[in-house]
Amino acid sequence: MKTKILNEVAKLWHIAWPVLIGQLATVGMSVADVAMTGHLSSQDLAAVALGASLWSIILVTVMGIMIAINAVVAHEVGASAFDKIPHIMRQSMWMAFGVGLIACLLLNLSTFVFNYLQLEPVVQAKASEFVHVISIGMPAFAMYRALYSYTTSLNQTKPVMVIAIIGLLFNIIVNWLFIYGKFGLPQLGSTGCAWATGIGMWLMLGSMLWWTHHAPVYQQTFPFTHREGPKWSEIRSMLKIGLPIGVTYFAEVSAFCAVGLLVARFGVVAISANQIALNFSSLIFMVPMSLGIALTTRVSQTLGEGDVVHARFVSWVGVGVSLVIAVFSATFMTLLRYQVAAAYTSDPAVQEVAASLLLLAAIFQLSDAAQVTLSCALRGYKVTRVPMMIHILAFYGVALPVGCALGLAPEWMPWHPEKPMEASGFWIGLVLGLTVAAFFLCIFLQRLSSTRIAYHFKSQNA
């Protein structure tokens, strides 16, 4: 059994490690935005924090929808039905283009929320401009993630890593030029971050298209050999899988971003500290997230082969590995929280609040790692609606209500602290919400995998 577990861990890690580096590089763009504007002014940092809250909600929702392609293509890979993949991908690109355009429109409309947050006029103007500019990258991002799912399903994850690193380097260089106004360029501050990221998304799409066109490994399944119009019936079948994943991602990320928007009423220090804690937590989250992407691929491929028993084994190995990693992540965040805060900002007040939030982030590492890998295992089974409902319950039924009770301490609630706990209260709510999600997802995966095995053997014996 030990050898079997180690072999599966090796297979997961073979897929996951390039994805991890790629995910870290992608999130590194956001880290660079926050860190570089943080050393320019607190107003620019607050603008990026607020703008990134809206951008992240739409971005991650689109990412979730595109994950459906991973499950569908990986299943065909497991079944050795490679001839079906080019057609699937052509329809996937049409789906991605449409989703990207809708996301761009929604992102621009979402800036109206700033009118109700009692923001400083300068911060509101900067945040709105950030969102309008960065939205140009949304269609490119959606199509890039479709190709991302395609190459990951073929176990080709190194392109993802290389292209993400190129995107990060581009982002840092253009940030430096535009934020600070180097070589005679205008000093754009937070808007410079938006231009760098938006243009970078198109660069990454172009790089992925070039790679899939020239690398020999894609010849058998290359989707762009001829033109093909959109077929709604097939796009709809992928959306049935992808939309619940998108809603799941929306529920989680919007809860975190809603915290950022609600914290805005406590001033620039609270906004900036919350964004630092959220940004670094997102960076650490990429480890279990990358493992989860590999897990979706492995579970889908195994089910495509018809081995339901091994699919359950793969699922629980992935969850176990993520929990081990989470222990190390929590320890790291606890011991080095002050150093992390200082790396983002030189403001002592922001550093102190950020360090306290990072301690709470360390507490939810185990439940966060568990819930993401459990969700990804379920996506390998092409089951997405129940996990969606679990996440909605966890974040909107637990995390945000508890966070509002502790953070805002409204007098009309039956129980609340004597004075608002501000950002810390909201993060305690997030800890509870993630724990609830992990608990119910664990129960559901166990029941689903057992039911599939029982049905499989019953069919064989019939």
Structural class computed from helices and strand pairing: mainly alpha
Distance between the termini: 30 Å
- Quaternary class: single chain
Largest sheet: none
Strand content: under 5%
What is the approximate shape?
globular
> Uncertain regions: pLDDT < 50 for 5+ in a row?
none
Q: How many domains in all?
A: 1
> Helices and strands, in N-to-C order?
HHHHHHHHHHHHHHH
Rg of Cα set:
22 Å
Mean pLDDT: 88
Helix content: over 70%
**Tally of DSSP helical segments:** 15
* Total DSSP E strands: 0
Which properties best describe this structure?
single chain, 462 residues, mainly alpha, 15 helices, 0% strand
Could you describe the 3D structure shown?
The model has no long low-confidence stretch (mean pLDDT 88). The protein is mainly alpha-helical. The relative contact order is 0.12. The protein has one domain (2-461). Helix content is 81%, strand content 0%. Pfam families: MatE. Its main location: membrane.
